[in-house]
């Protein structure tokens, strides 16, 4: 039985490593290029954002007002608008390309300009983040101490845009992202910081942390 | 009502065109509940019509099409019924959901909830 | 350990290993039935896989002459630069995982009384149940001046993806600036109804970059086509359709567009309205029928398609024979439906092996098509069955013509169409 498990684990990791990224990779973020990008961010308009959300059918996957209907897609409600704005830029440029799953967001951001992205970010930013009801049921694993400066245990976004809100995301989504950071398949983080954080984590620790944030 | 979006409205108000009309224009729709009395289509048979997109047994995890394997029954049914009524507008899934009766959706929910939430096959196809 | 029989153990191991993609090890009983599948294309391979998944006590043999299968879905992308290897699969993985016996040969004849096949190399292969999915047959002699030889060399069809796809691609690339390409769809039904128009649309998009004065003329055997409104709208927006600068022109059968004659030396075609058109590339798509093998063995009863009971896709002519895919009598011929039919047959054979009636079938054709890199479309088409006959229960397209333009939908459906091709290949071969 152990053998079978080993095979499964190996196969799973080959699967994660298997696909390489598209053609040329867009440049990675540096703190300088990111500071420039923040300066160039237009002011978001919540109402326009709501209109775009309807027109682009974002709710199909991200749910009504950005509250995800299943494990498969992240919630956007109450997320840090600056982070959403950045994520949309990264999808469009192709920098966020974990595997083919990221191609849906790539296609949807192709027709967007910076104003559209800022408006959508503003719209989700003012929605209420989904909170789980049995937050008390799980306790934070010790290794999570490495995360909480940027991702507070409340599940909310970190102070001064230090990290996106993780609370209420599905275990499936969080583990997918942590694996992607760990194996350099998601290189969207400014200065490669999240990548080095994720490399510390074993699969078990990933799972435990994900379970904790999912319940916040 | 506003949340339904234009396509939702189109769905709700849509006319039931008879099936023998020219299908080039793409507007043939017979309410599947009309087939209620027919011998039941199994959950697997109905679910296997999804696998070309969602993967064998709904187990494709690295594509735009989301995996269905292991979704809790209630979550699955709610999503499909929201697609079917147009409450949840989608570029693709509204028309697909409308093809199935409520009972077929429930049987599929049963089927998918019992599938392992692991990728069907770990091989890489070349990147897009 | 001693409590568990070898058979059960193997079953358990099989169930565990399948999650990681390893082989399913069948355990054949003495009386294990022999299912023989002719054609290792979409219909054939889906049947083999889905039958094995529900039944480990049956011998499954697939007879297919080629060692590589090239998917037709996506082959139009190859014409404009995608790599053909992305659309190709070998049989090794399916053979191992689903424990199939693969025979590299071509079936030449069927002896229904002896339940035996004869192959090109003279082998005799016995079956208990026979599944035929050999793809369509092509007719060349209804266009004067055309022949199979010409179709393989100069006046190509590329309606079976593979060598011809690459040859046609090279012809398109070699066209002089301002050259003309003719695409001539046959009368319906033929495999993949939107594909000729998709092909025209892709080549026009390619030309806009590489041969801006080039032109495509569609010479049609049909008065209209699926997604017509969407294609024409897109061509108006992007290809100046309907003006004298148009890079796509469509001459319908009502306007006398059907090709009656081709002159390969002078590169001209003659159409029904008497006009003669000169072109640099002539792409004639032959009239489709059932595969010749089925016509020869009487399964079509002198008609164009193999007569089947749509309840389980069994032949109306011979016992224990199933016909699926492009050869079967079915309103529309697509890979999606060939796969649905294969699943129905797998269910039916499994039921019969357990002395049960085949379950109720369902055929859904969820087609995703593209007009260009920024315009995708979708069609949901459902057939239900009553008393052995099909009933069209739904056929609805997006975007609807009554919907306002939605650039997000257009872009998303292109990504979804590409996704479909990938996930479909995986459903058939993984
Ligand atoms: C350009 C183009 C684009 C298309 N795009 C789409 C699409 O987007 N979506 C879609 O759903 N469908 C599409 N199709 C249609 C789809 O390819 C067919 O409907 C599908 O392949 C039918 O499956 P089949 O099993 O009947 O035949 P095939 O897949 O053609 O397989 C038949 C196999 O049988 C083998 N064979 C033939 N004769 C014998 C014999 N005597 N003995 C042994 N083996 C034999 C052949 O070598 C072949 O491998 C497209 C078709 C074309 C031409």
Q: How would you summarize this macromolecular structure in one to three sentences?
A:
The complex is a heterotrimer of chains A (216), B (128) and C (430). Chain A is 48% helix and 0% strand.
Q: What does this protein look like?
A:
The complex is a heterotrimer of chains A (216), B (128) and C (430). Chain A is mostly helical and 216 residues long. Helix content of chain A is 48%, strand content 0%. Chain A has ten helices and no strands. In chain B, 55% of the residues are buried. Chain C has 430 residues and is of the alpha/beta class. Chain C has eleven helices and 24 strands. Chain C has a five-stranded parallel sheet, covered by helices on one side. In chain C, helix 2 runs parallel beside helix 10. Chains B and C meet through helix 1, strand 1, helix 2 and helix 3 of B and helix 10, strand 22, strand 23, strand 24 and helix 11 of C. Flavin-adenine dinucleotide (FAD) binds next to helix 2, helix 3 and helix 10 of chain C.
Topology at a glance:
The complex is a heterotrimer of chains A (216), B (128) and C (430).
Chain A: H1 2-18, H2 31-39, H3 46-55, H4 58-62, H5 81-93, H6 103-109, H7 114-125, H8 171-182, H9 193-199, H10 203-214
Helix pairs in contact in A: 3-7, 5-6, 5-7, 8-9, 8-10
Chain B: H1 5-13, E1 27-29, H2 43-48, H3 51-54, H4 73-85, H5 93-97, H6 102-113
Chain C: H1 6-20, E1 33-38, H2 42-54, E2 58-63, E3 68-70, H3 75-79, E4 88-90, H4 92-97, E5 101-103, E6 107-111, E7 116-119, E8 124-126, E9 129-132, E10 136-139, H5 148-153, H6 163-174, E11 180-184, H7 195-210, E12 215-219, H8 228-238, E13 248-251, E14 259-263, E15 268-271, E16 276-278, E17 281-284, E18 287-290, H9 292-296, E19 308-309, E20 314-315, E21 321-323, H10 335-353, E22 363-372, E23 375-386, E24 389-398, H11 407-429
Parallel strand pairs in C: 1-2, 1-9, 2-5, 9-21, 11-12, 11-17, 12-13
Antiparallel strand pairs in C: 3-4, 6-7, 7-8, 10-18, 14-15, 15-16, 19-20, 22-23, 23-24
Bound molecules: flavin-adenine dinucleotide (FAD).
């Amino acid at each position: 039985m152990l053998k079978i498990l080993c095979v499964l684990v190996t196969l799973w990791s080959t699967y994660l490593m298997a696909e390489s990224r598209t053609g040329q990779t867009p440049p990675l973020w540096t703190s300088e290029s990111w500071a420039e990008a923040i300066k160039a961010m237009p002011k978001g308009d919540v109402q326009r954002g709501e209109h775009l959300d309807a027109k682009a059918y974002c709710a199909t996957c991200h749910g009504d007002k950005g509250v995800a209907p299943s494990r498969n897609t992240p919630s956007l409600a109450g997320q840090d608008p600056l982070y959403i704005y950045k994520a949309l830029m990264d999808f469009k440029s192709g920098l966020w390309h974990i595997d083919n799953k990221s191609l849906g967001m790539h296609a949807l951001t192709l027709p967007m300009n910076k104003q559209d992205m800022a408006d959508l970010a503003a719209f989700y930013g003012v929605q209420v983040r989904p909170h789980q009801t049995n937050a008390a049921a799980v306790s934070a694993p010790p290794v999570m101490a490495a995360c909480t400066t940027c991702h507070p245990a409340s599940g909310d976004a970190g102070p001064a845009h230090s990290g996106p809100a993780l609370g209420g995301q599905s275990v499936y989504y969080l583990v997918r992202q942590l694996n992607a950071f760990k194996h350099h398949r998601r290189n969207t983080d400014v200065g490669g910081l999240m990548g080095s954080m994720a490399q510390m984590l074993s699969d078990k620790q990933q799972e435990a942390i994900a379970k904790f944030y999912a319940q916040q | 009502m506003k949340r339904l979006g234009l396509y939702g409205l189109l769905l709700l108000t849509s006319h039931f065109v008879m099936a023998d009309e020219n299908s080039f224009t793409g507007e043939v729709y017979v309410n599947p509940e009309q087939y209620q009395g027919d011998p039941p289509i199994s959950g697997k048979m109905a679910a296997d019509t999804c696998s070309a997109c969602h993967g064998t047994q709904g187990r494709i995890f690295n594509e735009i099409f989301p995996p269905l394997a292991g979704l809790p029954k209630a979550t699955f049914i709610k999503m499909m019924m929201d697609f079917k009524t147009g409450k949840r507008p989608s570029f693709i899934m509204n028309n697909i959901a409308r093809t199935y009766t409520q009972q077929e959706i429930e049987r599929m929910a049963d089927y998918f909830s019992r599938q392992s939430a692991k990728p069907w096959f770990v091989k890489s196809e070349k990147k897009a | 350990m001693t409590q568990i029989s070898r058979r059960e153990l193997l079953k358990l191991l099989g169930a565990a290993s399948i999650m990681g993609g390893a082989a399913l090890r069948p355990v054949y009983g003495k009386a294990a039935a022999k299912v023989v599948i002719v054609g290792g294309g979409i219909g054939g391979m889906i049947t083999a896989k889905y039958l094995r998944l529900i039944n480990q006590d049956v011998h499954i043999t697939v007879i297919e002459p080629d060692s590589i299968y090239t998917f037709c879905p996506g082959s139009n992308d190859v014409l404009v630069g995608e790599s053909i290897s992305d659309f190709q699969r070998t049989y090794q993985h399916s053979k191992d995982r689903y424990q199939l016996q693969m025979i590299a040969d071509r079936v030449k004849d069927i002896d229904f009384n002896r339940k035996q096949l004869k192959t090109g190399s003279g082998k005799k292969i016995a079956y208990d149940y026979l599944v035929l999915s050999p793809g369509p047959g092509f007719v060349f002699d209804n266009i004067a001046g055309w022949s199979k030889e010409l179709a393989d060399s100069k006046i190509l069809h590329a309606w079976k993806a593979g060598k011809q796809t690459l040859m046609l691609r090279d012809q398109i690339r070699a066209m002089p600036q301002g050259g003309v390409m003719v695409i001539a769809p046959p009368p319906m039904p033929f495999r993949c109804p939107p594909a000729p128009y998709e092909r025209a649309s892709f080549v026009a998009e390619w030309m806009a970059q590489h041969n801006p004065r080039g032109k495509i003329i569609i010479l049609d055997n049909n008065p209209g086509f699926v997604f017509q409104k969407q294609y024409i709208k897109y061509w108006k927006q992007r290809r100046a359709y309907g003006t004298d600068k148009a890079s796509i022109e469509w001459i319908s059968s009502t306007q006398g567009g059907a090709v009656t004659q081709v002159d390969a030396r002078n590169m001209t075609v003659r159409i029904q309205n008497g006009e003669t058109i000169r072109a640099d590339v002539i792409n004639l798509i032959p009239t489709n029928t059932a595969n010749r093998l089925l016509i020869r063995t009487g399964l079509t009863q002198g008609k164009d398609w193999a007569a089947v009971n749509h309840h389980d896709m069994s032949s109306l002519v011979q016992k224990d024979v199933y016909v699926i895919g492009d050869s079967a009598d079915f309103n529309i011929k697509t890979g999606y439906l060939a796969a649905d039919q294969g699943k129905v047959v797998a269910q039916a054979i499994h039921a019969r092996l357990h002395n049960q009636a085949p379950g109720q079938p369902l055929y859904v054709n969820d087609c995703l098509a593209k007009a260009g890199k920024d315009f995708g479309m979708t069609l949901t088409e459902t057939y239900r069955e009553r008393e052995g006959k099909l009933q069209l229960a739904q056929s609805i397209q997006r975007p609807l013509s009554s919907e306002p333009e939605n650039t997000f939908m257009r872009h998303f459906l292109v990504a979804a169409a590409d996704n479909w091709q990938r996930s479909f290949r995986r459903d058939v071969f993984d």
